[in-house]
Sequence to fold (156 residues):
Amino acid sequence: MPYVLDATAIRAGMSIQEKGQFFTTPGVIGEIRKGPVARSLELAVEISLTVTEPGDAARKKVMEAARKTGDDGRLSETDMEILALAWEMKAVLVSDDYSVQNVAAVLKIPIQGNLDGIRKVINWTFRCRGCGKYYDEMQPDCPICGAEVRTVRRKD
Fold:
């Protein structure tokens, strides 16, 4: 069974109970290099980690799912990469990130992590802290009053 690992999984040395093939993306390797490298690289060598990129179709599928839930403003480019790779490879995604898990649930990507996973999919929207106006997409500032726009749980 293939597994796609995020940076947290590699840094923390998440225990993977199964035998299988292990993959990650160049973005994850870039994040690992910013932290304590020695343990991360030791684990990567230990499990024969393959670094690869997802295709454009998989990236597009993930972006559509992230827009649907409102997680597109919460996920990094690297998060999108690992989701796309897991979807494309029909792999288990190893991550404790709740936004990653949220989008994975929509895409029916199996998740494994050390923490309790999400219980249900959460949809997000954006709301101005000043005037209370809701937006479908993230705004740098509210176009009406200029106050901060924040991510809030959408009431469905």
Summary: The domain at 2-112 is CATH 3.40.50.1010 (Rossmann fold).
